[in-house]
Amino acid sequence: MKKKTQILLISLWGLAVAGSRILYFSLNRRPVVDTYEYFANAMIQVEKSSAPFTSGLAYAYTEFLSRLLRFTGNRIEAVSIFQMITQILWIIFLFAGISMIFGKLAAVVSMTILAALPVIFNSMLEPSTENFYMLHLSLVLMLLGVFSMQTRKKGWFERRIYELYLLTAGFYLGVICIWNYTGFSLLLIGVYIIICNYVLLKEKIKAQKEKKEEKPKNQIMRVFYQGFWLLFGIFAGMFTTLMKYTGRTGQTLGQQFDWWMIQLRSFPNRCQDISTWLIVVLVMSVFIGILCNMVFFAVKKKKAGQAEENNKVLEEAAESPEEESDMEETHEGYVTTADGRQIKLLDNPLPVPKKHVKREMRFDFDFEDEGKKENCIEEKSDFDIEISENDDFDLI
Fold first, then answer.
1. Looking at the domain assignment, is residue 7 inside a domain?
2. Which of 92, 205, 288, 327 is paired with 86 by a 20 to 30 Å CA distance?
3. Among positive and negative, which fits the CA dihedral 95, 96, 99, 105?
4. In this predicted model, what pLDDT tens digit does every residue of 168-181 receive, in sequence order?
5. How many domains would you assign to the chain?
6. For the residues of 296-328, what is the DSSP string, one character each?
């Protein structure tokens, strides 16, 4: 499929996602309900009071809503519009991140499933942390996707800008890991990218060590240092976020870490202020998309291999037909060819023409029976004419 066609189809897909959200929000007649009281907590913060501190994600979301309400006023409809815009953005960003890491087919399948679920549509109609968190999760995944794609196409070089990029992506990942345990799924994806980079860059780095005359700016960053900068950023982000919470709650860093670990107890209902159903459908949809992408390319690779093998056999047969026939081994009932195939021999039910025998024809005038010889000589036919020396012949 041509690149322009792919861009057109992806653009139409994005318009369909955005249009379906806008249409659903416009036709909805249900009132916006503050089920989890995030809107109420944001209004309290506008009045400079302390809000409940249940999790890091709830704290970050409430802080953001309090800043939003300073511009829009205490209108819950404004929060709902913000939820709709956020959902459209995180679906598009998540699509981009998955396509850069796992392929466009995986992104189309997984995000189509996820975007069509009713639970995703309904999350726009109430102030909740799901869309806010998914926006940040998709941004981090897109940063990792750029890291993966750049390494595959051009390489990841030993430059300060590349080190800063990995440090920033790791820091951002560490923050959302403290917000919610779902962020650790991106840590697994980061490990997957590092392993793929090791397989991809192993030969290039080995050749780079042998060529010492390479310029420093063209040096490919070793996979160890890629993982180091990413992991260092993750720990820096987690530590900074927990330190911020200590200033907010007045507890020590150890007590704040224990508070963060205890939040896992609420997993059956809402894990760190995120619906468990959202986590399940997110993981399942991405897994289905990756599986479809793997099956598609496995079948495509198998067909390409078979076609290449058939072409190779035909080329060898055309180049050296005599050698191939000499290498055939005939066994009882079948023939084994040079490439290992066994061809069964069948009896021909049709009659075979007789073998041609060359014969020589000659006339033998030596008669053994003298009587027959005399009769043969004496007998005359109507065409026997005696010619004398005085005969004239007219030629017309």
1. yes
2. 288
3. positive
4. 999 999 999 989 88
5. 1
6. HHHHHHHHHHHHHHHHHHHHHHHH-HHHHHHT-
